[in-house]
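Weekly sync, protein design subgroup
Attendees: M.S., D.O., the rotation student, P.L. (late)

Item 1: inverse folding check
M.S. brought a backbone from last month's batch and wanted to see whether the design step gives back something sensible before we order anything. D.O. pointed out we never logged the input encoding, so this time it goes straight into the notes. Structure tokens as presented (91 positions):
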């Protein structure tokens, strides 16, 4: 009788341990906030004002600088700045 009780208690303890060892579903991480993109600006091209003055063209570097200034002004966190800059400069 004691052997049966011990065996039954062991099986119940083992079943409980297996049930506790199962993976519980993890909570999904909160979605990252989506920051607004600045309005697209047309390229700035000015005609030469002097005889040898080159035309002023809005370059990729100019656009990246504008995007960086805008991102810092609206408070984009540092860990999301790379993604924001990629999206902003590809507009």
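Designed sequence read out in the meeting:
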């Amino acid at each position: 009788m004691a052997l049966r009780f011990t065996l039954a208690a062991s099986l119940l303890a083992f079943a409980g341990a297996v049930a506790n060892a199962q993976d519980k579903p993890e909570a999904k991480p909160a979605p990252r906030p989506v920051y607004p993109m600045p309005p697209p600006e047309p390229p700035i091209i000015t005609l030469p004002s002097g005889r040898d003055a080159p035309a002023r063209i809005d370059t990729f570097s100019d656009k990246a600088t504008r995007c960086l200034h805008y991102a810092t002004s609206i408070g984009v966190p540092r860990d999301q700045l790379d993604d924001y800059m990629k999206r902003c400069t590809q507009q």
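Discussion: The mean pLDDT is 75. The longest helix spans residues 2-21.
Action: P.L. to compare against the previous round before Friday.
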